[in-house]
């Protein structure tokens, strides 16, 4: 008896020691299984939808970046008036739709995180690293995007605009690499079309899995019977589509006015705010309250060796023009309003120089901040509708909307519609 | 084609990485990248899986698909609504979220009733 117990104990100890020494070869005891809902086809379908959403989001995002930081070769028209409003609204809408799509996609491939052994070789390690980068970057973009829409910057230890721009390239590059690596699997999963999922299809699928298992590529998530797979897949896709629909309806009211009534989550409703127009940066926040209300305020127009100082009365005495133009913010909300003021072109003409090839630097009373000045060039400088606005609707500009004067131009992001304009310098574009 | 995608993708990734590395907030970007990845995979998804299992245990089998769908929609909306509610913007976002969740619950009830009605009719 005693001897048996000793032997048994020793065998147990041996076994435990062997398990400890050979842990890299044995997979973890718990990991998420495929289940009846996951399948390679589901993953690929979600991938296609996600790719489209991400692609549109990326293109509209880069466009927004280029409009705000135009390189020499970039040209941005001043018409249609609402083009930027549309592209940026689309950017935020596709970005929000990515929330359920990315969530479902990552859920569907979660078992692959637990692939064993974790690294099979250099190529495998590189592939896993690039997938990690893709997932991290995609989550980064979606999370930072949602936080920006909510104006909640505290959780982000970086300046949102530049970080969001650079990580976008990381995400899109990771996506391209991922598609390249997975192309054969994607083709196989998607060509497995609505064809009859009978015996032959099942045999082919099993043969494919055996082949993959032999090559050591089998991962949990691939083994699922075609019939239950189709039903489960539809269930997941319908749920994800419903989620995307609800989110869109609840938020797009910030861009599309008729839908504002159901836009219970629209961060900025078009009619909110003073004079029926939302405000991002108030006069108090910009530190310009006293200076803007000062009767000694003068708008300085300078360039080509000349300079003029105009008071509010002088500006009001010049020919006034009215234009209906939207404020289109980078967060996706936009709202149109009726602006009345002096044409920027008329002010620049006071300097008596040829405006072809010139640009105007419009500076704010706001002393510091990334957006205290903006450059108006080319088509925007020449456009009839680019105004130094004095009135909004039928009233003088509200202080928070830029009293005594603000720049408003067609097809331009909100951050570049400088408020509390103090100085306009006209010069040759370099 | 495959190789071209992989190589081009790697170049684009490198472009993004070098840009981020030159940003003054590069450490913050790196920390945030790691944080979202780790939190999502080790906290968020396991909780989602646990919720799925819970639904599987608590909800009768016939009602499970709609329960799961309702949970998915509710969770996605919450991800968008909660930052709005917590953040500095004032707006009735918490109410908005509750309204949407109520609509989802009602929708689920409706679909359930319609389904069981259909089942009853086809059997009878």
TrEMBL record, chain A:
<feature type="transmembrane region" description="Helical">
    <location>
        <begin position="131"/>
        <end position="154"/>
    </location>
</feature>
<dbReference type="InterPro" id="IPR036374">
    <property type="entry name" value="OxRdtase_Mopterin-bd_sf"/>
</dbReference>
<feature type="transmembrane region" description="Helical">
    <location>
        <begin position="166"/>
        <end position="186"/>
    </location>
</feature>
<feature type="compositionally biased region" description="Basic and acidic residues">
    <location>
        <begin position="194"/>
        <end position="215"/>
    </location>
</feature>
<keyword id="KW-0472">Membrane</keyword>
<dbReference type="Pfam" id="PF00174">
    <property type="entry name" value="Oxidored_molyb"/>
</dbReference>
<feature type="region of interest" description="Disordered">
    <location>
        <begin position="194"/>
        <end position="228"/>
    </location>
</feature>
<dbReference type="GO" id="GO:0016491">
    <property type="term" value="F:oxidoreductase activity"/>
</dbReference>
<feature type="domain" description="Oxidoreductase molybdopterin-binding">
    <location>
        <begin position="296"/>
        <end position="428"/>
    </location>
</feature>
<protein>
    <submittedName>
        <fullName>DMSO/TMAO reductase YedYZ, molybdopterin-dependent catalytic subunit</fullName>
    </submittedName>
</protein>
<feature type="transmembrane region" description="Helical">
    <location>
        <begin position="45"/>
        <end position="68"/>
    </location>
</feature>
<feature type="transmembrane region" description="Helical">
    <location>
        <begin position="88"/>
        <end position="110"/>
    </location>
</feature>
<keyword id="KW-0812">Transmembrane</keyword>
<dbReference type="InterPro" id="IPR008335">
    <property type="entry name" value="Mopterin_OxRdtase_euk"/>
</dbReference>
<keyword id="KW-1133">Transmembrane helix</keyword>
<dbReference type="InterPro" id="IPR000572">
    <property type="entry name" value="OxRdtase_Mopterin-bd_dom"/>
</dbReference>
TrEMBL record, chain B:
<keyword id="KW-0472">Membrane</keyword>
<feature type="transmembrane region" description="Helical">
    <location>
        <begin position="30"/>
        <end position="55"/>
    </location>
</feature>
<feature type="transmembrane region" description="Helical">
    <location>
        <begin position="92"/>
        <end position="111"/>
    </location>
</feature>
<keyword id="KW-0812">Transmembrane</keyword>
<feature type="transmembrane region" description="Helical">
    <location>
        <begin position="67"/>
        <end position="86"/>
    </location>
</feature>
<protein>
    <submittedName>
        <fullName>Uncharacterized protein</fullName>
    </submittedName>
</protein>
<keyword id="KW-1133">Transmembrane helix</keyword>
């Amino acid at each position: 008896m005693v001897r048996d117990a000793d032997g048994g104990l020793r065998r147990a100890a041996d076994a435990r020691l062997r398990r400890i020494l050979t842990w890299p070869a044995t997979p973890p005891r718990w990991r998420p299984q495929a289940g009846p809902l996951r399948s390679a086809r589901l993953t690929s379908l979600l991938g296609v939808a996600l790719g489209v959403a991400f692609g549109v989001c990326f293109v509209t995002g880069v466009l927004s970046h280029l409009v705000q930081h135009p390189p020499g070769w970039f040209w941005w028209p001043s018409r249609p008036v609402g083009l930027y409003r549309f592209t940026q609204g689309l950017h935020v809408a596709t970005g929000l739709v990515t929330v359920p799509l990315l969530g479902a996609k990552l859920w569907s491939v979660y078992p692959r995180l637990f692939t064993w052994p974790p690294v099979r070789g250099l190529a495998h390690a590189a592939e896993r690293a690039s997938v990690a980068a893709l997932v991290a970057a995609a989550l980064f973009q979606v999370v930072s995007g949602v936080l920006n829409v909510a104006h909640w910057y505290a959780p982000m230890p970086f300046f949102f605009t530049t970080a969001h721009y650079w990580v976008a390239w990381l995400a899109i590059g990771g996506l391209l690499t991922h598609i390249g690596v997975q192309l054969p699997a994607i083709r196989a999963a998607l060509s497995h079309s609505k064809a009859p999922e009978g015996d032959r299809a099942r045999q082919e699928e099993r043969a494919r899995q055996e082949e993959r298992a032999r090559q050591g590529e089998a991962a949990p998530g691939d083994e699922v019977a075609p019939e239950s797979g189709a039903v489960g897949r539809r269930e997941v896709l319908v749920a994800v589509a419903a989620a995307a629909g609800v989110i869109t309806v609840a938020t797009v009211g910030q861009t599309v006015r008729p839908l504002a009534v159901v836009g219970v989550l629209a961060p900025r409703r078009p009619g909110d705010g003073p004079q029926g127009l939302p405000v991002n940066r108030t006069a108090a926040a910009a530190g310009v309250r006293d200076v803007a209300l000062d009767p000694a305020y003068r708008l300085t127009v300078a360039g080509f060796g000349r300079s003029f100082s105009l008071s509010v009365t002088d500006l009001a005495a010049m020919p006034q023009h009215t234009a209906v133009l939207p404020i289109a913010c980078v967060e996706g909300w936009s709202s149109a309003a009726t602006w009345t003021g002096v044409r920027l072109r008329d002010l620049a003409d006071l300097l008596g120089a040829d405006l072809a090839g010139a640009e105007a630097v419009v500076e704010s009373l706001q002393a510091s901040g990334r957006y205290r000045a903006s450059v108006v060039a080319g088509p925007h400088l020449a456009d009839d509708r680019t105004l130094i606005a004095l009135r909004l609707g039928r009233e003088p500009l509200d202080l928070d909307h830029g009293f005594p004067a603000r720049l408003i131009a067609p097809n331009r992001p909100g951050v570049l519609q400088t408020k509390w304009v103090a100085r306009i310098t006209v010069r040759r574009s370099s | 084609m495959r190789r071209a995608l992989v190589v081009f993708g790697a170049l684009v990734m490198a472009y993004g990485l070098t840009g981020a590395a030159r940003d003054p907030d590069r450490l913050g970007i790196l920390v945030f990248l790691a944080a979202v990845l780790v939190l999502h995979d080790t906290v968020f998804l396991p909780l989602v899986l646990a919720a799925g299992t819970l639904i599987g245990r608590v909800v009768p089998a016939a009602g499970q698909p709609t329960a799961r769908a309702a949970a998915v929609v509710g969770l996605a909306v919450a991800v968008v609504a909660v930052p709005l509610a917590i953040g500095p913007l004032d707006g009735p976002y918490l109410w908005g979220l509750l309204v949407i969740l109520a609509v989802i619950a009602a929708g689920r009830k409706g679909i359930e009733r319609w389904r069981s009605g259909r089942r009853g009719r086809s059997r009878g």
